[in-house]
Design brief:
Elements lengths: L8 E7 L2 E6 L10 H14 L7 E6 L11 H4 L7 H20 L4 E5 L2 E3 L1 H8 L2 E5 L3 E3 L14 H9 L1 H10 L3 E2 H6 L5 E3 L4 H13 L3 H15 L4 H23 L1
Parallel strand pairs: 2-3, 3-4, 4-6, 5-7, 6-9
Antiparallel strand pairs: 1-2, 7-8
Helix pairs in contact: 1-3, 4-5, 5-6, 9-10
Length: about 250
Amino acid sequence: MKYQNYETLRAEYPEQGVLVLSLNRPESVNSMNRKMIEELLDIWNSLMHDMETRAVILRGEGEKGFCSGMDVADVFQPDKMKAPIMYDYQYNFGELEMAMRRIPQPIIAAVHGPAIGAGFSFALASDIRVISTDARFATYFIRLGLGGADMGCSYFLPRLIGAGRAYEYMLTGRFMSAEDAMNLGLCSRCVEREELMDTALSIAKDIAEKDPLAVRVTKEAINANLDCSDLASAIQVENRNQVFVTMHNMQKSS
């Protein structure tokens, strides 16, 4: 499946089944403006029904970093700051993370430099995080005079690093270094910047070679069981998936 040339995104296929999606506003460290929100929602929704794309790598264009957060001047325009309009618009922020979890393709965030605010949330909503040694993260919202929890970070961060440290980062807006991100278990690989894309591509290719249905139900099971109340419920989801995939494989071989 081919994707249009977006204004704030760049989509390309360096390997069969692997989509590299670049946040493409390098002049502002790929900050998220209104157009990027619109285009990200479009491509995430399109990927829901894209059977050819098996894995997605999300990266930031340019040397400066992954994403510096919201383009505040563009997103918070004075004529759109009335409560009903703002509430309706805020809904789209959360929809970005929801869409990232709903699509069947695993998302690998390849992060270099700063991932701040919205950028941190994009990394958190991804399934796998591969970072360079100069990567650094911050929720940062509270430093802008906003609530310290936005765009799903109060959901993802405590589950990924534990509530105690998540409180600290969200209440202070302090930066998390690449070393801390690895020690806290937030990221799975930390490499030199020149190795970042090769490492992300290696993981994406490995995933793309697997049966797409098996990958899809695995991602769904992990997401569902993050909120699962007990072991029995988790096993029920796994049992359903295993029967489903086994029957699928038997039909393929017959």
